[in-house]
Design brief:
Blueprint lengths: L1 E6 L4 E6 L5 H18 L4 E5 L9 H14 L5 E5 L8 H8 L3 E5 L4 H9 L6 E3 L7 E10 L1 H16 L5 E14 L1 H13 L4 E7 L3 H10 L6 E5 L4 H9 L1
Parallel strand pairs: 2-3, 3-4, 4-5, 7-8, 8-9, 9-10
Antiparallel strand pairs: 1-2, 6-7
Helix pairs in contact: 1-2, 5-6
Length: about 240
């Protein structure tokens, strides 16, 4: 049996299985999912809240589940598993090989965090910081950064500034909300650095993420610009330094 609850504020369907899934359960899920997408103009995220890993009533139910995944997995932005059952520890690892959605497991106590994570799915990974001098590019990143974020936001903004100034300054905040850089994003990051290596006068990196701070420290001597690393709580100081 599958209980389906809609959460419009967080753009998600909450799925609570309480027994083996039936064909009717999966048909109802497909109907609710398609109806939501048509009504709201975007597909919902899915939160699976379960005490134990669900099974299927029969082979027909399993087939319906596979069909739902095949038809909808490219549309679903995020899937959150909320459970203390140990089986869900490996579920995201398996799911990531089968679906394109971002998948994460949360313990039972973090139900609210899971809902907040689903609600943030529609927010942009990269935003431009306002209220900075015109020769400064201010970038704040969160979630999963993809190659398209570089191609559509970061690179055009850097090249727009370089068309107006011989050298510019970069303020780059990678806060605790950062989840990952895709392989394409890492490649684009490297290409931006190589192409515009002499185009930066100052670079401020604001982050508490360990590997980012270590990477900046390692590569700073190779960059022909002043480079300074700030903690995430020092954003105001970073803004003052980059504008000085």
């Amino acid at each position: 049996m599958l209980r389906i609850t809609e959460d419009a504020g967080r753009n998600c369907l909450i799925l609570e299985p309480s027994g083996p899934l039936t064909r009717a359960d999966l048909d109802r899920l497909a109907e609710r999912f398609d109806g939501w997408a048509a009504e709201h103009g975007r597909p919902p995220g899915l939160l699976i809240h379960a005490a134990a890993f669900p099974s299927w009533a029969d082979f027909g139910a399993l087939a319906r589940h596979v069909r739902f995944i095949r038809r909808h997995h490219r549309q679903v932005p995020r899937v959150a598993f909320v459970s203390d059952a140990r089986a869900f520890d490996v579920a995201p690892l398996i799911a990531r090989r089968l679906v394109t959605a971002d998948v994460r497991h949360f313990p039972e106590k973090d139900l609210d965090a899971a809902l907040a994570w689903l609600a943030a799915a529609g927010e942009p990974a990269v935003t431009l910081m306002p209220d900075l001098p015109d020769n400064v590019v201010g970038l704040s990143v969160r979630g999963v950064v993809h190659a398209r974020d570089y191609q559509e936001i970061i690179i055009p903004e850097i090249e727009r500034k370089l068309a107006r100034y011989p050298r510019i300054r970069l303020l780059y905040r990678l806060g605790p909300e950062l989840e990952a850089l895709s392989a394409g994003a890492v490649w684009n990051d490297a290409m931006v650095g190589l192409k515009h290596l002499t185009g930066f006068e100052r670079v401020a990196v604001v982050s508490d993420v360990g590997w980012i701070r270590h990477s900046v420290a390692a590569f700073a001597p190779l960059i022909p610009a002043e480079v300074q690393v700030f903690g995430d709580g020092e954003l105001a100081a970073a803004k003052a330094w980059i504008a000085r």
